[in-house]
Write a structure and sequence with these properties.
Order of helices and strands: EHEHEHHEHHHEHEHHHEEE
Strand content: 15-25%
Distance between the termini: 39 Å
Number of helices: 11
Helix content: 25-40%
Low-confidence stretches: none
CATH topology of the largest domain: Rossmann fold
Structural class: alpha/beta
Bound molecules: pantoate
Length: about 280
């Protein structure tokens, strides 16, 4: 596997594979885990060349401390990427991705006006800036994103549609620890106590699927909120049951054939997100 840090070296590495090759891109912020490995494996299976970007994108952080504390583990990341067969790791500097400040403003209404869009202002604008930049630099045929970031995935699909990128977006299922905790780079930041409480998020979501079969949407939302309150350590930021396509909250199960519950909760200082499918 080649590790490259500049756009010029990336282009050179890509051209060394020859013309007409299918290229898969796995955008990441590093601190790679088995969830990322599943994206890489899928890309390796489906493409001739797999590029994995490792870039902690400053423009998508609305909290300076969060950006400062975000785990950075490039050596370990490269080992994992080698092991799973990636061809190129692209780990650029901020100046390489943004030679000039990126002032582009994206509007994905109404997808970016709910949930993470409300609680992390500017976050999706930053995601769209970096992902569009990576798409322009790598020109992949396919790009791979995890379903844990459910809203991000919907927004990236919209980015592709709106700006006419000829890129297939491949969603990949959430990978979980044995106790149900969704894999996330942020899990490494959990304290021992936090790590013990974090699986209660998925446990509440999983239990709510059964509950939902005999209860209303509002009752199901309350069921999850009550489970978070009962835990005592977790602090719910939001739980919304939405139409999986429009991301707008639903009030009745009959409103959609694709219903997804999306949660953000603080586990101590660490903010975790997860989701669960009720229908679809
Ligand atoms: O999901 C992530 O890790 C990031 O938001 C992404 C897509 C790599 C953009 O920085």
């Amino acid at each position: 596997m080649k590790l490259v840090e500049t756009v010029a070296d990336l282009k050179c590495a890509l051209s060394s594979f020859g013309q007409g090759k299918k290229v898969g891109l796995v955008p990441t912020m590093g601190a790679l885990h088995d969830g990322h490995a599943s994206l890489v494996k899928r890309s390796v299976d489906e493409n001739d060349v797999t590029v994995v970007s490792v870039f902690v994108n400053p423009t998508q952080f609305n909290d300076k401390n969060d950006l400062k504390n975000y785990p950075r583990t490039l050596d370990a990341d490269c080992k994992l990427l080698e092991r799973f067969g990636a061809d190129i790791a692209f780990a650029p500097s901020v100046e390489e991705i943004y030679p000039e400040p990126d002032t582009r403003l994206f509007d994905f209404s109404p997808l970016d006006k709910v949930m993470e869009g409300v609680h992390r202002p500017g976050h999706f604008n930053g995601v769209a800036q970096v992902v569009s930049r990576l798409f322009d630099i790598v020109s992949p045929d396919r790009a791979y994103f995890g379903e844990k970031d459910f809203q991000q995935l919907a927004i990236i699909r919209e980015l592709v549609r709106k700006y006419d990128y000829h890129i297939e977006i491949r969603p990949c299922p959430i990978v979980r620890e044995a106790d149900g905790l969704a894999l996330s780079s942020r899990n490494t930041l959990l304290t021992k106590e936090g790590r013990q409480h974090a699986p209660a998020i998925h446990a509440a979501l999983a239990a709510s699927v059964d509950f939902a079969s005999t209860h209303t949407v509002a009752e199901t939302v309350r069921f999850v909120a009550d489970a978070m309150a009962k835990d005592g350590y977790l602090r719910l930021e939001y739980y919304e049951i939405v139409d999986g396509r429009t991301l707008q909250p639903i009030t009745d199960w009959t409103e959609t054939d694709y219903a997804v519950g999306c949660i953000a909760a603080y586990c101590g200082e660490i903010r975790l997100i997860d989701n669960i499918k009720y229908k679809g």
